[in-house]
Write a structure and sequence with these properties.
53 residues, 0% strand, Replication factor C small subunit, P-loop_NTPase, single chain, mainly alpha
């Protein structure tokens, strides 16, 4: 099955997130900096919510 491009290439760790240092700083926990896909967050449109999710 073919994956959707945005899902295939989305960041899997916070180290993979580019350009949102302010948001990444809020989510850093532990050494692995794993992205937790179950977090709920809200902000204005265009702030990278979907990318971080």
């Amino acid at each position: 099955m073919t994956e959707i491009w945005s899902q295939k290439h989305r960041p899997t760790t916070l180290k993979d997130v580019i350009g949102r240092d302010d948001i990444v700083a809020h989510f850093k926990v532990g050494d692995g900096f794993k992205v937790f896909h179950c977090l709920f967050h809200s902000q204005e449109a265009g702030t990278g919510k979907t990318t971080i999710a």
